[in-house]
Amino acid sequence: MKKLRLIVLLLIAGLLHAENIVLYDAAVTPIASVQQHSKSSFQVKNGVLEITTKGNTGYPGIVLKGNWDLSKCNRLTVEMVNRDNKGHLPITVRLDNPGANAGKSKGVFVDRVRILGKTPKVYSMALPPLISHGQEINSKLFGMRKGPLNTSGVVCDLDPSKVVAVALYIKQPQLNWRWGVKRIVAHVGNVKKTPAWMDMTAEEFFPFIDVYGQFKYKDWPGKIHNDAELQQARIREEADLKAHPGPKNWSKFGGWANGPKRQATGHFRVEKIDGKWWMVDPEGFLYWSHGPVRVTPSTAMTPLDKRDMYFTDLPKAGTTFAKFYTTRDELLHPYYVKRDIKRTYDFSSANCYRKYGERYYEIFAELAHRRLRSWGMNTIANSSDKKICIMDRTPYTDRFELKSKRIKGSHDGWWPFRDPFDPSFRADVRRQMLIHKQEMEDPWCFGFFVDNELSWGKETDLAAWTLESPADQAAKIEFMNRMKTKYSSIKKLNQVWGTNYVDWQDFLKIEKRPGKGAEADLKSFTLVIANAYFGNIRDEFKKVAPNKLYMGCRFAGGGGALGREFVIRVAAKHCDIVSFNIYAHSLENQGLPKGVDKPMMIGEFHFGALDRGLFHTGLVPVKDQDARGRAYVDYVTSALENPLIVGVHWHQFGDQATTGRFDGENFQVGFVDCCNTPYPETIAGIREVGYHMYEIRSNAK
């Protein structure tokens, strides 16, 4: 009877929405058809599948099994709700074919949406057409976040006529989340006609990258077809630079020459003036930092291992262009080594050589300073070529990552969390400061970030990870000594924590997270670790460079996001500037926890589109290059109008390689493409806001 009732309900739904294929509807789909994806709990309540997922549990969410033919559908909508007030929640949506292997991106379609708001909203994504030889070609493609056949989605290796599962989950969350799913619907519509090259066999398709590192089978404005076009682009840009020499109201360092002047100290500093935070340049002019990360000619370096077939006419050993097998981005080179990548090719440097000749590096470096000034930018941001920075023509900043002993139980983000109680911690800060001694003494360098997008976890996690570490972990020994002082005996600690340690040596030996009874002490010691982390860095930093700005660790996300208020408060006590990498469309509502008043720096943001030959937009997609330029204006304007923010740094100066860097990133996020040609729409946006940034900031309420 129940089965008959379900069939009737589904028929009614089908009649009401004849154009749709309903994959899930919380109002009618049996709860028994919902399964865990990794770890989660769920229940249907008020017509919504309410889902609870825990942090550090892999890929928690749900999966639905079925048998659907979506070959006549052109988009998928998911109606979802975010029950937590922690900012946007990124949800991965995946469709599977029979025998799918998500880990190898085979037989799957993957896309992502960011959900926000406590009432259900509909989120839409384009579905892929059936590509004749798609799975054959995709089986030979790797090392790219998104490939040439990914006409939609993040991963696209799907036969839409044979979908047997749909999954929604969070990718490796650090926090607990509560969210819900109401409906999942595939919409029938005109399936986009694929271009002729998408019907090629694998034999016809490869190689698909030309000698300049560009995709062979598409054309777009600014694409280079021969060396003569490179020279034409050079001539056009030179005329553009002469027509736009840069803002007239800037000081030598790019400060506000027409604005109110403060005391000149010969160094950069921060100061709050009339309710707004500012930087002050060495001559005493107000300064707001505006520039790109990773100014280097080597942004489009790509791995070759087992991928020679991708590329047209790679140079032979001993020829002029063979030198670009060995040029490299010094910042990223260790990541290639760590992944045992043996062979690379530096397309962007090779194209600079074609464009500028033997002295290509010197010309690129000189041009970088001219470009930034012409575009309305006054900063070379971190991770740029040191030789370009120390030309002392544009203020700059840099960053370093600590390599001291880690807290072994910590959860890796980009880097493991270093133990601030281990003697190697302070020693490594000193070592890094010595490596960067020249920059530390250079008045054009205004400061340093230390580390990047660390995994902090929740407000008890640093302490819990410490307890999950070996007995010789310095932080664990420090934790034990503090508990000895507080409880005097292991018996008293056991009574509060609900543990059964035999003695204090047992406390060190057991590598296990305790239960809820320990929560107060875990919170307290997590703050102790955070204080030691930021405090030890600041102490060593200021001993060597008292006049440089310590700008923190570039938190991933906003000032109150992701439940990290506890550590942001600690950072604000020790850092001159608190830094965040915020990929969004606006900074209008970005702030710091209540009662915290410190300047903020945005270490990374970007926008990208798919109309210039690359396969991935980057982290914040926009429709096209015009939209990209407009998004730039809106983002930077919102930062200038935010009284806490003292600068924004774009990631990155040049596009990534079409075929991906060491980790597969192949984003259209450069101010220049792989042939070192500026994107005119983006440059127009930069100039629109950059030439007037001091007026915008001074007039903002």
Features of the shown structure:
single chain; 701 residues; alpha+beta; Jelly Rolls; TIM Barrel; 3 domains; six-stranded antiparallel β-sheet; 19 helices; 25 strands; 20% strand
Structure in words:
With 701 residues, the chain is of the alpha+beta class. The chain has 3 domains: 20-205, Jelly Rolls; 227-394 and 582-699, TIM Barrel; 423-549, no CATH class. The strands form 6 sheets. Strands 1, 3, 4, 6, 9 and 12 form a 6-stranded antiparallel sheet that branches. Strand 7 and strand 8 form a beta hairpin. The protein is globular and about 80 Å long.
Lay out the secondary structure:
Elements: H1 2-16, E1 20-25, E2 34-37, E3 41-45, E4 48-53, E5 61-68, E6 73-82, E7 89-101, E8 106-115, E9 121-126, H2 134-138, E10 155-156, E11 163-169, E12 177-188, H3 202-205, H4 227-243, E13 269-273, E14 276-280, E15 286-287, E16 289-292, E17 301-303, H5 333-338, E18 344-346, H6 347-356, H7 360-375, H8 386-389, E19 396-400, H9 423-435, H10 437-440, E20 445-450, H11 461-467, H12 474-487, H13 490-497, H14 504-509, H15 519-544, E21 549-550, E22 555-556, H16 565-574, E23 578-581, E24 600-604, H17 625-640, E25 645-650, H18 680-690, H19 693-699
Parallel strand pairs: 16-25, 19-20, 20-21, 22-23, 23-24, 24-25
Antiparallel strand pairs: 1-12, 2-5, 3-4, 4-12, 5-11, 6-9, 6-12, 7-8, 7-11, 8-10, 13-14, 14-15, 17-18
Helix pairs in contact: 4-6, 6-7, 9-15, 11-15, 15-16, 17-18
